[in-house]
Amino acid sequence: MLSARLALPDLMNAQVLDKSTAWHPVGSAALICERVEQILRAVESTTTQHAERRRHKRYPFPHLLTLTPVGNDALTPIAEPMVVVGKDLSVSGLHFYHRSPLPYRRAIVSFDDLPIDIHLLMIASWCRFLRPEWYDSGGKFTHLVTPGPVGRAALE
């Protein structure tokens, strides 16, 4: 069994995407699956085999991620990005931990501490209170996106 490597992000050289960055769709559901599988290969994580009712296999994903809240157009940032901690990842979505309730449903998930540059639009499906300042949430990936200048494109 391969063990997952948790590398700390290089915050000094990280690309900072602020509210002036818009997001643009660049791929299909098949491309999302391919990119998430690429992420999973990059972290070399595996799980023990057990009976699973879910459609897609989940993989442990203990990595820092950045969520950038986006508006109803699913591309325009509407609030400051927040850092969250991944729990599980599948080709269809993400399960993660965070410090405060999510006031939005749509966000761009950026996999900053990995050696690959992938950004996915996620629609949050649920949020659960665990204890003061700790929440548990999950959502489904809908589009592969790429950063670019504001006003360049919209979802197709």
Produce a short descriptive summary.
With 156 residues, the protein is mostly beta strands. The protein contains 1 helix and 8 strands, in the order E-H-E-E-E-E-E-E-E.
Defining key terms:
single chain, 156 residues, mainly beta, Pnp Oxidase, Chain A, six-stranded antiparallel barrel, 1 helix, 8 strands, 10% helix, globular, disordered N terminus
Poorly predicted tracts of residues: 1-14, 151-156
Number of H- or I-type helical stretches: 1
As a percent range, the share of helical residues equals under 10%
Distance between the termini: 41 Å
- For the record, what CATH class applies? Mainly Beta
Give the spatial strand order of the biggest sheet. 3-4-5-8-7-6
Q: CATH homologous superfamily, by name?
A: Electron Transport, Fmn-binding Protein, Chain A
Tally of structural domains: 1
Along the chain, the helix and strand elements come as: EHEEEEEEE
Structure description:
The chain has a single domain (about 20-45, about 60-145), classed as Pnp Oxidase, Chain A, CATH 2.30.110. The protein contains one helix and eight strands. The chain has one helix at about 30-45; strands at about 20-25, 60, 65-70, 80-90, 95-100, 105-110, 120-130, 135-150. A hairpin with a 2-residue loop joins strand 7 (about 120-130) and strand 8 (about 135-150). The longest helix has 15 residues, at about 30-45. The radius of gyration is 15 Å and the shape is globular. The protein starts with 20 loop residues before the first strand and ends in a 7-residue tail after the last strand.
